[in-house]
Amino acid sequence: MFSIVVRITSVKQLFYGYDYGRGFFVFHLATAPAFEKGPNVNRDTEAQKKDLENIRQRLTYLDDAHRPSAPYAYQLLVEPLDEAGFNDFLKKRVFACLPKGEDVSPPVEPSKQLHFRRLDTYGMRVMDRLSRWLQNLDFVLAFQVEALFRNVLIDPASLLAMQTDLDKLMRSAYSVGVKSDIIRQFASLIRKKIPQGVLYSDANDLRALLKQAETDNLNLLERTVARQAKALVKQGAGAKKTALAEDGLLPQVVDTSAFLCYHVTITPTAIQLEGPFPVLSNRVLRKYSEHQHCFCRVHFTDEEHNQFRWEREVDGHEFVRTRVGGILKQGFELAGRHFDFLAYSFGALKEHTVWFVTPFDWHVTEHGQKRFDAHGRPIMQYVNAEYIRTALGDFSKVIRCPSQYGARLSQAFSATYPSIRVSQDEIRHIEDIFDGQDGVRLMSDGCAPCSPQLAADIDAVLMHGKIRDEDQHAPRAYQMRIGGSKGMIYVDPRLDGRVLCLRPSMNKFDAPDSLDIEVSNVPRASAMYLNRPLVMVLEDLGVRLATFLRLQQEEMEKTLDAAKSIERFRIMLSQLKLGSRFNVHYVLGNLADMGFGFQDDCSDDMGILLGDYFYYEIVRSTVWDVFRKIKYQARIRVPDSWTLVGVLDEHGILGPGEVMVYIQDSEYPNGYFLKGKILICRSPVVHPGDVQMVTAVVPPAGSELDKERLANCVVFSGTGARSIASALGGGDLDGDLFHVSEYRDLHVVQPYRPAEYAAGEKRLLDRDATIDDVADFVVEFINSNVLGLVSTTHLIIADQHPDGVRTAKCMKLAELHSLAVDYAKTGIPVPQVRIPHFEFPAKPDWKADEVGDPNSAEFYPSQRALGHLYRRVQLAAVNPTMRVKDEEGKEPDDIDRLPLPSKTAQEVDDAITVSVRDRIEQHIEDLDAQTPQMSVPMANIFTQYVYELRRICTLHALHINSPLTEMEVMLGTILRKSAQPKRRKELAARMHVHTSQLVRAVQAQLTPTGEGDDDRHAVLKAWHAWLYVAQLPLEQTRRGMEKPFGAKSFGMIALGVIFKLLDTLDQRPAMDDGPVDSADYEFDFDE
């Protein structure tokens, strides 16, 4: 028996009626329904559920007749119903929390009539015609055309009806990029006119919308090109263009650290398309830079773009093998091209995301130079997925283990920044260091030294590419990739010239000809924060509840207190890395210097209050973000504590159980040594022995560690019976982050003996693995990765049992956790049947997610520290004002509500304009008479900025019908509640990269070009950018009169450029407010 399963939450609209003695219902859905096959079951009793596992099959479509339309059918017609059935459903819809619905029974006015007709819009003939058409289009354009019907905007038949109009656009003289923008704008205009999932088929309206999209883009383009051409004539024939993309539009990518990536989401029923938009690049994409459009990221999700979750009675595992495995092994058609599975990056595997590629002809390039034969003809190479994998290196060490083969391939697909190229003569192979007891334990796992000159050369490249902040201290260590090796390198002052040392433990496969050093992380001193697993373990190791409550109270009060002072608030923003792309903390610091402030700064009529809705929202959104993390993650900052990368003492100075930690940041510009007993751990902690106490020492004066103090690293001893890093949950030194704390109230009096597990076995084949074997592993990983389940079960049982994390079940779960962490490399999963059951069914209230109800019978009020911390934070439903409550639920009198806006946006902008003008006139006389030479009108730059900002708001939102706000993009956070915060974090990280490229593109228009363009002229350009948005008229919104969308964030970019340039003219350094919490934006590390 077939079934169509509809989630109540996916029903957006409901229509019903009664006609000719028959009742009917029409459901308009936000996402496609689920299709299943098998017996109907009664899901009411737990006893029955145990006998119902895997008795139903999940389907992509019901039958062959349904197959063509299944991905696009977002409306369901249920009929006929007799009168009793019709009335019964009307009553039940209320209890099911369905929308109220609209009665469309005849007679109704024409605008409310529903019309039904049978159409062959997805028939084989139509789809074949469409495929042939797309094959003949440039892929960049074909992708956008296919997205029109894949994303359920236009049905294929209506799209073919527009082929003549679209072909006319394709034949036009405009660049491919402009044509692509026109089609994307066309899609955006359609989406504005219709609800999601409703196909638009009015031919005349569609042509009008296409014409509007073309006009909108070309008006902007023609003004831009005309202005740029005039500027170039004025500058002379030899003048170069400024940092503009083709045709004078703002570039979407400004450096080789990112590229425009096409995204494909494959759900159980459909294939949906997004992009292209910027993502961090990698080794492979940089090698084939002229063919980056031939690569796409494919994400396997459920219909709501979340990870797969199955009802007990549905055989989800078999469906994943069929749906996901079939696509991985057979590929798929996109825009008239065939795409094949290529590989995955290690971090993306956990998100069920992989790389696909379509074959292309490549002009062979070596070291950035194109190769030609003896006759001057280009040397061409046919490139497909197999060629790319083979060219990466020799994987014979791991080729019998599919999971390990996949993991080694993933090194080349990890997000990295390009730096320098070394020669073979500059690489020095050195031996690993083992323990001094029996010589079998590795102490130098994944790390090696480098020379000061090599580190300086890497730093110079990162500085030039703006990867490292100018005001950050020069790093003394880097996490890097080179060829088949990866790990940490750190400065050894004994090495002269350019020297890179590599150890056997760093080498994962052989690629001797790949000599580019790629940087995957630039370590710096970051704050240490508590988290739920760490709180649970520390509590069971003797840390008092009062300590956690005090830290939480201090964190919340500090957050609310910072919201009242611009100086405290900007420092908090910098530490949280919120608004970093827009330099919000830096702009606020400069405004503070000019007399602007918040509530506490402007008492007694002193100072100029930043009191409009924009600055109010910056403050309120930041406080919301902090409090949400405190409540749902127990993310509480620990004083006198840091998060640092680990490296090794190469000199044998440190003894067993000793570390050296030297902090150098804005708080300690002259450096600070940690001394005495300190707590050390790494996240996540599971076993009680994952937290240890070590001795921090100051190196002897004149010693090698004194000469090179390896600032902002934990330097581990290379002596003793076991590596300290290994004792901390199996850590190593290839880039792991470690928490170190001098905060005595968290110190453990009697640490638990560290866990020690035997190395996990690997699943090996009796032959060399193929990419199909890797595909099989990806499928099984999606089905069998229980790391999250193990972690959650461990915390819940620890809460339920008096012995906490030391109970036998939790100790067993700690062992299973170690195996689950290694699953992606060993290929051997943890069977779910080995995971112990809860002590009792109810879960602690802190386990309720953001959209759950902790007061329901499903939860109990936890009496552990996590329960007390959870209940102390009260969050309103939507982005509220925050209050701190004590254990009795009372609000302390000394915590005031955040001040409400008291000024208009124009009043604040006018005040800023006056103050900034005064400061600029210290360097430029008669400012009003100065006009900058602009190759692009400011209005055009702003229009392009707003267009791309709207794309960011839509592309990276949790739900397509609830786009992000300008404020969320500017701060780099997503405020909407979600039952899957991990997905929200992924989207925020994706948004961060996209936003970074947009901001840098605007900054490039406002900063010196190097072609006779000095800092003073650049100040004029940025000043006119500020004046442009500051003088835009206010618009009526639901909150009152505000600046147009994009104006405030664009103004923030302009102010940031102005202040940076004025700092240069003043010859004073820009401010640095570290330490910054780098964990907010994690890189895609390989393991």
From TrEMBL:
UniProt entry keywords in alphabetical sequence: Nucleotidyltransferase, RNA-binding, RNA-directed RNA polymerase, Transferase
Catalytic activity: RNA(n) + a ribonucleoside 5'-triphosphate = RNA(n+1) + diphosphate
EC number, as in UniProt: 2.7.7.48
Biological processes annotated in GO: siRNA processing
Domain RDRP core span(s) in chain numbering: 266-873
Family that this chain belongs to: Belongs to the RdRP family.
Name by which UniProt lists this protein: RNA-dependent RNA polymerase
Species the sequence originates in: Exidia glandulosa HHB12029
Upper lineage: Eukaryota, Fungi, Dikarya, Basidiomycota, Agaricomycotina
